[in-house]
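sry for the spam today, last one i promise. struct tokens for design, 384 residues
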């Protein structure tokens, strides 16, 4: 276990503690290696008498499977790590919290999206709250608040941002570093690249196969690379299948599995037309890191794409708004932020396209800012 001084504080800790104050079961969901177990231990410090049980340990898992009712019996806060490994625990937890409805009974962590797992018998509706843990944000890495999206929503076009000391290469370095705590701690770029290689290999060879049998694991690995190279663009299975030379049904199934394991996230399309919004094709950002370091550094276009996709990957983090993308006629998708029922703000349509932005592109972008429901649009460009 790491010493407390070396742990990076997580903004989600406040949300988890608040949820435990009025909710019987709180679930921390997120990808592997994002710090769910560490966050659970930090939360436990505020709850005397709490207990932590790891289902990754074979004897603990065997006890959970042998007698779920006895396993979940505890008078204080019971923290169960990787709860998806013992699906029958959910019925036992349901019985416990129905019998004793005190808030703060259970804190569960899971590395797979529980709503998509067929083996889960009951997701505890009305009894639980799910908090998704993302890889580290830039504010968490720098140990400061993340306030940009909140400031945009509060001030709109009146927002004034102070000058930054970061240059283009600094933004590129942050984009390639990503937010997985283990990768952030590694300062050697070769060792960091090795972490990502091992992470994807373990994910395909172990985590995916724990959920389902896949016939062609090498194709899933190629699909991950393709998604990384096209983060923020439309996720069209037929187009990806054509490029990978595999059936479209296989690509769709593999994309669903990547979403289930929090490797990717679909950003829903937005339109004033509810039917269009329901059927539009969403972009699918890859979490934590985009692209291959060596290729991106050598390729001028990919450098811009790697940084330009960061707003799309950051959209879901703000707790009070819903992320979406809006596609003007004959134009690329633009990330937006909107509160339910409120006008939307195009918070970051082009982050630092590291090649010069041509004047016609900027004029067409400004022209598309018209419309009473759109409040403002921001173009973010780091200095050279």
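last one done:
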């Amino acid at each position: 276990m790491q010493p407390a001084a070396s742990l990076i504080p997580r903004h989600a800790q406040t949300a988890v503690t608040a949820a435990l104050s009025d909710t019987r079961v709180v679930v921390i969901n997120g990808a592997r290696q994002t710090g769910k177990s560490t966050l659970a231990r930090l939360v436990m410090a505020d709850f005397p008498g709490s207990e932590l049980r790891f289902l990754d340990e074979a004897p603990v898992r065997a006890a959970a499977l042998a007698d779920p009712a006895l396993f979940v019996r505890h008078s204080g806060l019971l923290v169960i790590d990787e709860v998806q490994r013992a699906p029958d625990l959910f019925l036992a937890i349901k019985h416990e919290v129905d019998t004793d409805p005190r808030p703060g009974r259970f804190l569960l962590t899971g590395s797979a999206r529980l709503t998509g797992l067929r083996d889960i018998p009951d997701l505890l509706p009305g009894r639980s709250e799910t908090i998704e843990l993302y890889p580290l944000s830039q504010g968490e890495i720098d140990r400061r608040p993340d306030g940009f999206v909140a400031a945009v929503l509060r001030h709109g076009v009146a927002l004034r941002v102070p000058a930054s000391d970061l240059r283009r290469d600094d933004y590129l370095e942050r984009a390639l570093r990503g937010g997985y705590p283990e990768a952030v701690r590694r300062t050697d770029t070769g060792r960091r690249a090795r972490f990502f290689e091992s992470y994807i290999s373990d994910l395909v060879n172990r985590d995916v196969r724990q959920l389902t049998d896949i016939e062609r694991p090498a194709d899933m690995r190629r699909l991950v690379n393709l998604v990384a190279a096209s983060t923020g663009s439309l996720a069209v299975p037929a187009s990806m299948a054509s490029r990978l030379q595999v059936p479209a049904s296989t690509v769709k199934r593999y994309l669903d599995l990547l979403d289930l394991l929090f490797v990717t996230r679909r950003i829903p399309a937005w339109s004033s037309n509810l039917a269009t919004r329901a059927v539009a094709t969403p972009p699918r950002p890859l979490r934590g890191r985009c692209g291959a370091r060596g290729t991106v550094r050598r390729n001028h276009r990919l450098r811009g794409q790697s940084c330009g996709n960061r707003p799309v990957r950051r959209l879901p983090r703000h707790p009070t708004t819903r992320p979406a993308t809006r596609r003007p006629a004959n134009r690329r998708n633009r990330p937006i932020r909107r509160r339910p029922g409120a006008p939307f703000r195009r918070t970051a349509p082009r982050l630092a396209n590291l090649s010069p932005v041509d004047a016609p592109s900027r004029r067409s972008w400004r022209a598309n800012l018209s419309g009473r429901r759109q409040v403002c649009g921001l173009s973010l460009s780091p200095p050279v």
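The chain has 18 helices and nine strands. ok im logging off now
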